[in-house]
Amino acid sequence: MTTSTPATTENVPGDQPMFCANHPETETYLRCNKCGKPICLKCAELTEVGYRCKECIREQQNVFYNALTADNWIAFAVAAGITLVAWPIVAFLLRITGFFGWIIAALVGSGAGAALAQIIRNSVGRRRGRYIRHFTLAGIIVGLVLSGFITMTFAGFAPFFSLQGLLFLVLAMAAAYQTLRW
């Protein structure tokens, strides 16, 4: 008669815990399904094909971003130039319309931002960039400051001190940012 010995579990390499590549103190059993790097749940992103590390996701996204460095500055200049010219006109119209300025700002603000984003997209040759939307927002702010300074100097009124104008600006900037996101 044979005596049975209890089954021993040997440590197979797949059973041993690994440590996250970015957080060496965090134990994990998860690997990136593209590069195989051990990652913890803080570093993992769930995609349609499984968990991936942020570096692999960024590498995949870079395929879609084809903008040149000069495109960021073109977006900045176009946004600043259009804002410099258009903002005093918009601010004046919103100011003289009274209560209807609120309605106009709410209805037209996001459309103006989307139109600005399309102008910028066309001016950079429809290329996509990771930072074009940030340069656009910076251009809008610079255009606002310059137009405010010029308007106060020559026309004697400050276009910034209008709640309707603020609503218009928030909607326009949000729409431009979201439109240029993709």
Order of helices and strands: EEEEHHHHH
Total of DSSP H or I helical runs spanning 4+ residues? 5
The domain tally reads 2
Structural class category? mainly alpha
Q: Write down how many β-strands occur, each being a DSSP E stretch of 2 or more residues.
A: 4
Lateral strand order in the biggest sheet: 1-2
Quick summary:
The protein is mainly alpha-helical. Helix content is 55%, strand content 7%.
Describe what you observe in this structure.
With 182 residues, the chain is mostly helical. It has 2 domains: 14-61, no CATH class; 69-179, no CATH class. It is 55% helix and 7% strand. The N and C termini lie far apart (73 Å).
SSE map:
Elements: E1 18-19, E2 27-28, E3 44-47, E4 50-53, H1 54-61, H2 69-96, H3 100-123, H4 132-154, H5 163-179
Helix pairs in contact: 2-3, 2-4, 3-5, 4-5
Task: Give the tags.
about 180 residues, mainly alpha, 2 domains, two-stranded antiparallel ribbon, 5 helices, about 55% helix, elongated, disordered N terminus
